[in-house]
């Protein structure tokens, strides 16, 4: 709607804005609930998930950026977005469907912790 320039009536836009403002904090709260009582495990699935998200995905974004001829500034943005740690949606879906819970939650927790380092390295390398 925003792209098309459509303006929502104030009565509709206010609740949407309220939900948007609490989304970040609410997702962190949900992440805490997801990890309560969980002990992260390191196994081949966790290592594969973390490697894909923290190393392979940013590399793929760099290759795509080069293929599309992006400017240096846009390349930096694309690579940093690609290196950003995983969202909690995978863990929440795993919990909801009662499958793949341990690898998903371990991947999110450990991937986020490792992502702090890999994100810093990515920023340093592309500066």
TrEMBL record:
Q: Kindly list the places in or outside the cell where this protein is found, as annotated in its UniProt entry.
A: Membrane
Q: Name one GO cellular component term.
A: membrane
Question: Where does the protein principally reside?
Answer: membrane
Q: Which residues cross the membrane?
A: 18-38, 50-68, 74-95, 107-126
Gene Ontology biological process terms in this record = transmembrane transport
Mind listing the UniProt keywords for this protein, alphabetically?
Cell membrane, Membrane, Transmembrane, Transmembrane helix, Transport
Provide the topology term for how it sits in the membrane: Multi-pass membrane protein
Q: Which domain of life is it from?
A: Bacteria
Q: Name one Pfam family in it.
A: Mem_trans
**Cross-referenced PANTHER family, in alphabetical order?**
AUXIN EFFLUX CARRIER FAMILY PROTEIN (PTHR36838), SLR1864 PROTEIN (PTHR36838:SF1)
Q: What is this protein called?
A: Transporter
Q: Which organism is it from?
A: Klebsiella michiganensis
